[in-house]
């Protein structure tokens, strides 16, 4: 009989973040056999999804006989919206803490914290921005997750504790690389190139294709653009008239390369898997504090993250080659000096509200950024 759980943590039901997080649980001492069972079933689930509820239920029944932690949900990312088996919930003892891990839609993690229904979640900055723009003084300034807590203006307990540092094998570099992504401008190779693409698109009224869930982010940052919501950004760009472009999440660039599309400049924002915590619960609950400490959230400027940023940039650069136009330097992509004014400064979990004060550590942040860029360049030169 399972004991009552003390902490609740939401993660995606399926997909890379789900798989990477469960793999990381092994490091925290979770039963390897159970994790392997869950991952094996999850990897089959996409192929076994069915439009028929009865047929999908057959695979669910077989999965539950192996380990009782799955359920059926609608896979809304696929056009025919089949029923798919996904992770529902399971309890583990992690360093003497009984933790209930619950599967959810990726964007729902922050919503459940907002509704005071869970303690923490694994959420990407892209998903966090789509659901919590209301709480930010200027969402367009939050181009990196290190600026999020600083820009919270309206009352909410949602806070980023740090990067989850979830990694996955990258075939380009032939080693594990963190799950970083950029929200990039993409176009057909025949398209004209404009450094100020926003001004050009606004003036000429050409369409910008955006996946539905990101329309709000783009509209907030660039209200003058002619935005068209689509299910598949890459295909929409390929089929559209000349001059139309897309804004899309890019991790490895494999899909763009396969379809002959090109990447432009810097992304609208950078994202990665993050530990997002209900701060109000955190300051009142020593057990939650211990659990978050066990997860070891990584700060924006920590050396471990700088290494992974260099690896991710190198992998994307190597994969895209000449198809990445107006490519920023690795140090410019990592951060700009003006980011300090917008809140990109160090904070620790001991810092009040996990956000830097306007008069706190600005000078130290300038020094830190300079040192971080030097280390970043060093790692970049080592990996190239």
Protein traits:
single chain, 384 residues, alpha/beta, seven-stranded mixed beta sheet, six-stranded mixed beta sheet, 14 helices
Structure explained in plain terms:
There is one protein chain. This protein has 384 residues and is an alpha/beta fold. 38% of the residues lie in helices and 23% in strands. The chain has 14 helices and 17 strands. The chain has helices at residues 15-27, 32-45, 53-66, 108-114, 125-132, 197-204, 215-221, 233-239, 254-259, 279-284, 286-295, 303-320, 330-334, 362-383, and strands at 7-12, 70-74, 83-87, 89-94, 97-104, 120-124, 158-163, 167-170, 175-178, 181-188, 207-211, 226-230, 245-250, 261-264, 270-271, 273-278, 324-325. The strands form four sheets. Strands 10, 11, 12, 13, 14, 15 and 17 form a seven-stranded mixed beta sheet that branches. The protein is globular. The N and C termini lie far apart (53 Å).
